Amino acid sequence: MAIATINPTTGQTVQTFAPESEADIETALDRAVSAFAQLRGTSFAQRAGWMRRAADLLEADADRAADMITLEMGKPLAQARAEVLKCAGVMRFYAERAETFLAPEWLPDPTAVGAARAGTIYRPIGAVLAVMPWNYPFWQVIRFAAPALMAGNVGLLKHASNVPQCALYLHSVFSRGGFPDGAFQTLLIGSARVEGIIRDPRVRAVTLTGSEPAGRSVASIAADEVKKAVLELGGSDPFVVMPSADLDRAVQTAVSARTSNNGQACINAKRFIVHRDIYDAFAERFTQAMAALVVGDPTEEATQVGPLALESGRAEVAALVDDARAKGVTVRLGGVLPEGPGWFYPPTVLEDITPAMRIHQEEAFGPVATLTRVDSLDEAIAVANDVPFGLGSAAWTADPDEQQAFLDRIDAGTVAINGMTISYPELPFGGQKRSGFGRELAGAGIREFCNLKTVWMGE
Ligand code: NAP
User: Rounded CA gap, 330 and 197, in Å?
Assistant: First the structure.
C-alpha cells in the first residue's frame, strides 16, 4: 500500500510520501538506543514536564490536528477534535500518575524471605515498536506513547500507510515537548518492513493495534524472537437489550455505539441482541434513528457519518452485506452502495442472520448493524459469546441479577451495563479470544512494557 494522504470524501490523492530507506531505519534504531540510554536516567518529574508541554502543544494545535485526521481518514470534524483533546488528557493523566503506578512494592516483613529489604520495582525495557491503525490515528498512538515514555521507554511508530501526516505530526509533538531526540520516532514504512524491525536486537517489544491477520503475523514473529507483544485487535461487540431496559436510552446509545467513527471502531457495538418482548419496538425505533443520521462531508458541522477511510474497507463491508443478502438476510435499511465520489456506505440494519452468513462471525467495519431476537438471558449470553472475538460488550437491563450474569459470563475485555464501551485513561482496555491480549491505559497499560524486577537485599 502506498504511503499517501488520499481524501476518502473525494477519493483524490492529496500527497504521497517516500518510504524510509534502509539507512534511515538504521539511523532511527541507533537513535532510539541512544535516546533510551538518556531517558532511563531521567526522573518522572523531568519526563512529566516534557509530557505536559507536549499536551499543551497538542491542545493548542487541536484544530489543525483535527483537520488532518478528517482529511486522511474521514472522521466527522467534531469527533476528530474530541479525539485530539482526549489525547492531551491521557498525556496529562500519565504525567500525573506514572510514578504512583510504577511505585516500588516492598514486603512489609522482609525477614520472611531472610532479607533486610525485598519487593518489586518497575524498570523500562527499551525501544518498543508500535504498529498502529488509521481509525483513531492520534488516540491509538498516544495511548501507547504516553505511558511508554513516562515509564522511560522509547517508541518507534509504524503508522497505517493512509495517515502519514498524522504520523509525522505525532513524531514532532513529542520532540517539541522536549523529549530527547529519538525518544519517539515515526518510520514511514510499509507493513512488509515490520518483520525486520521486530527481529532487530535493538527493539525489545512490539505492540500492534489492528486486524487479526496483522496481529497474528506480528505476534508470531515476536514469539520467534522471544519478545513481548501486546495485541489490540478487532471485535464484533454485542449490545444486549432485555425487557427491563430503558428503551429510549438504549436506542439512542445503540445508534452512537454502532456509528461513532463512521462505524469503524474496534469497540463499536456491531450485533444487537434483543429480547423478544421488546424486539419489535427496539428494531423499529433503532432503524428509524439509523435512517435519520446525516451522512455526508465530514467537514460539515451537521454530518454524523462520513465516508469509510479506505476504498478496500468499503468493498469489504459491501461484500459482507452482499453475502448476507445472497443467503436470505432481511435488509431493514441501507445496504446499497451510493453513487458519486468518496467511499461512503449508508447506515444499514440487517435481521434474520443465519450461521451460514459471513457477518454472523466476522467484524463489519462500517455502519452496519445486525439484529437478533432471543428468548432468554441464557440465549442472549450464548449469542453474545458466539464469535471468535472478545473485546467490548454492552448489556441493557434494570434487573440486578441479570446485570451480574452479564458481568460474570460475557466473554469480553469490557462489559458496560446500561451504557456503551468507551475507553478511559482511568480504566484498562483490551480484549480476549481473538481480540488480542495485554492491556492499555490505567496502571495495567503502563506496566505492560516494564520489567517487573524482584529485589532482595541482605544486610
Ligand atoms: P490493519 O490492516 O491490520 O492495519 C493496522 C496496522 O498494521 C497498519 O499500520 C498496517 O500497515 C499494519 N499491518 C497490516 N498488516 C500487517 C502485517 N502483516 N504485518 C505487520 N503490520 C501490518 O488494520 P486496519 O484496517 O488499519 O484497522 C482496522 C482493524 O483494527 C479492525 O479490525 C479494528 O477492529 C482493529 N482495531 C482494534 C483496536 C483495539 O484497540 N482492539 C483499535 C482500533 C482498531 P499498513 O497500513 O501499511 O498496511
Answer: 47
